[in-house]
């Protein structure tokens, strides 16, 4: 049982909604396994009060904090420094507080996603064409890391077209000229793609059962990835599986990005296998 004392370093996740998140159990299991006097908990908030909360964390016993939808882009306004890759991505999911009280933004989503995609699905990024639903924080990290590692082409769409266009422009300027905007609801580019990504959040939380893509556009030779892991199979993945496609959910992405967060907050190697076991135990309980 974790004991909280005056020396306990705190971490909180800022986002909305957070009911679907397994991050606290995974992180706290990691701290326990590594012998770290830390505790991770949730703070539900959207952009409206984000600045006030972030400023308050400066003066409390925090090692840093984590960030998720819809705050990954907005949070940059309240940070003192950005890691170079985070700056290029324009999105942060991990903030480290230095002993002097500075807040430095990083992005481990991209690292987690790339590790899961290459190690668990065997994807050779530099040989593939990608289609991504969602140009927000998760989409930014995923598409940016793909461009960084030499993706042949990345088509990006979002219900909020300005969001997708902004991401396309940033990737083409900061990484490589491989991104192309696709109007929302236009599926004409899908047939040319090897990997289809759902980073939109559709299918989780309040939108369980929904999908951004009608299944008639899915092809068996494609891989379908959803950044969501609760539910373990969103409608997007269920439809893809029914069409004979390979599927991968966001569990590995969450695991590897969480391990990278621990290493940034503590400077110590994360106990990846203990964290994986906890995530799998949570999923087993949900069945």
Automatic annotation (TrEMBL):
Keyword terms of this UniProt record: Amino-acid biosynthesis, Aromatic amino acid biosynthesis, NADP, Oxidoreductase
Positions of NADP(+) binding: 134-138, 227, 250
Any GO BP: amino acid biosynthetic process
An MF annotation (GO) of this entry: shikimate 3-dehydrogenase (NADP+) activity
Enzyme Commission number, as recorded: 1.1.1.25
Catalysed reactions, as listed in the record: shikimate + NADP(+) = 3-dehydroshikimate + NADPH + H(+)
Record pathway: Metabolic intermediate biosynthesis; chorismate biosynthesis; chorismate from D-erythrose 4-phosphate and phosphoenolpyruvate: step 4/7
CDD domains per record: NAD_bind_Shikimate_DH (cd01065)
Residues annotated for shikimate binding in this entry: 68, 93, 109, 229, 257
Active site, UniProt feature: 72 (proton acceptor)
SDH C-terminal domain span: 250-280
Domain of life: Bacteria
Role noted for this protein: Involved in the biosynthesis of the chorismate, which leads to the biosynthesis of aromatic amino acids. Catalyzes the reversible NADPH linked reduction of 3-dehydroshikimate (DHSA) to yield shikimate (SA).
Similarity annotation: Belongs to the shikimate dehydrogenase family.
Subunit organization: Homodimer.
Protein name, UniProt field: Shikimate dehydrogenase (NADP(+))
Lineage: Bacteria, Bacillati, Bacillota, Negativicutes, Acidaminococcales
Gene: aroE
